[in-house]
Design brief:
Strand content: 25-35%
Oligomer: single chain
Number of helices: 9
Number of strands: 44
Amino acid sequence: MNLRKLAAATILAIGTTMLAASPAHAANIAANPGFEDGLTGWTCTASSGATAVSSPVHGGSKALQATPVGSDTARCQQTVAVKPSSSYSLSGWVRGGYVFLGVTGTGTTDQSTWTSSPSAYSQLTRTFTTGASTSSVTIYVNSWYGQGAYQADDIVLDGPPGAAVPAVPGNVTGTSTPSTATLKWAASEGATSYNVYRDNVKVGSTSSTTYTDVGAAAGSHVYQVTAVNAAGESGRSESVTLVLGNDNPQVPATPTGLTGTGGSNSATLKWTAVTGATSYNVYRGGTKVGSATTTTYTEALPPGTYAYQVTAVNAVGESAKSAQVAVMVGGDAPPPATPTGLTAAVNGNTVTLNWNTASGAPTGYNVYRGNTKVASPTATTFSEVLAGGTYAYQVSAFNPVGESPKSAPITVTVGPGDPPAKRVLVGYLHASFANGSGYIRMADVPKEWDFINLSFGEPTSVTSGDIRFQQCPVAECPNVEPEADFIAAIKAKQAQGKKVLISIGGQNGQVQLTTTAARDKFVQSVGAIIDKYGLDGLDVDFEGHSLYLNQGDTNLAAPTTPVIVNLISALKSLKAKYGSKFVLTMAPETFFVQLGYQFYGPGANGSADQRAGSYLPVIHAMRDDLTLLHVQDYNSGPITGLDNQYHTMGNADFHVAMTDMLLAGFPIAGNVNNVFPALRPDQVAIGLPAATYAGGGFTSVAEVQKAFDCLAKGTNCGSYKPRAGVKPGLRGLMTWSINWDKYNNFEFSRNHRAYLDALN
């Protein structure tokens, strides 16, 4: 379930078919391949903490170790001189959660590959041919977002050597004046020129071994030099720090004399200039709203009273904020006018209101059902799901000055129908293992959880289809309850209206139903687990390499890949066996679902990862029997949403964009004739980690609820606006895991249970 996500843009390159050219057989032309000389010859990203360690190693006495931080994947690389139109073999031994080995700049098809081998070294290999004009390539090794430290050793680039890239310049020194920085260095053999970098940005080139930088801002700057020839550019030299201008620069003083005047729809500020300031920042209500290089600032605003402060800025930093000044905009301007054109439409149990934009610069609208205010959207539309009955609505507009009178009422009648589905919390219970979060007995699972997924049922082998489940061993979980108590507690939870499922797969449980025999064994063995423990159904949490699409398998409605076809058949058999009360949920990763908007299987040329979007045909085939789909919106790389922009995990916009794809549907790999249709809102929940240590991409309580507000109420939306519109029936939230939530003092379940209950 956790630590299984890879970024779409990089993963799709790793399945590239190896070229047919025969590998060369020559001495290793990579420099310092075993890191016996530390990082000599290698350049690593700044925040990776890259170093040569003495354990664990594959060969020799040293190995590389680096750690990804934030968006830094801890890449280490070196540029190697090669011959044009020649064959090469790249290999290396790596160890870690996800480790990539690759080559760029080949002039033909760049190559990369990866493995997940956290406890032992594993060898990665790729071959490639250089282009007709290629004189150097860059080989690299890196990890991925949210992973721990990785190790690499014995990197081999096997093939004919080319003209060498010059050595890194040495003996770099520098002097400075108030306006210039002058650098000198020792010549590098074979260099035809040198590049000079200031603060990691190239600022000039020279053919000599000296360079004067003119015009840099006053303050401290870090300089480095590289050597260049036809084969390429060397690594960067040791850095030299030089101070220009004042040797002890200071932040500017706090601005004084701040005044403000308000117009009918604007505020204008003025203040006294500060010596040494290069610009000024303007704050309204404590939030930065703009910058100025002069001592005046104007912005347009609706009527109201606003509090301003100003700071002074230079290369060293920012001053403290000035004294506050209040500015009234609009004077005694009236509140906005009453909205007109209120209409209502009823679709099943969903009521949707629309109205015209009110005049008078409204900042939002209040929606009243009867005499109760039920929402304050900023848009001119609102939807909600109601039980059968007759309801009267009115709408008003508001801005900082006040609220308009209410519109004329409009009455709607909702058919008897079903009341809105209860919002649910879905959690995974570590029932068969312990991982530091602590074992929780079934009887002690808190009341907040509606769906309890027992983690995990796993296969006896990858392709056997034979699924087994057993409670956590006493040696691993000393407080594990006897099996009879475990089963009794399951029944007690079910009597309280909870659903208890067996979750199959997880991070370690690879399940590939490659044959009909494996399919039939899957049905038999999963049924045996459900029957033994009296469970309500099945959660499909296939990860890693369980699902994939063969070349040419592109029709969503008619898949042909055996692991897909057999899984669909198995799920239909289980549904038929247990009938209408059978609960079926799925917990795929974004790579297997939303990535299908861009890539589907290996693609037309077979170069993409065959797992991309591979859950889609399973979801589509089971959509009429699917209870809940809760995609894991965590441990994910950036994913393209329906706005054709990349979205990165850990914030409300990511969850809105990913969930909107399920609620709106999307063309698969851009093919409008092969569309994944929208799911019902009551079939969709948002998947999240319960705490920062439960998985990458943890999202705060406030951001999660902001996302749910946007999707279910049309309020609190950020930059991404849902294409599916408001979906009041959005079902709830899933988390990995119940155990990590308890470890984190129940922050997830208690806050979100109260929030979902309030929506109900």
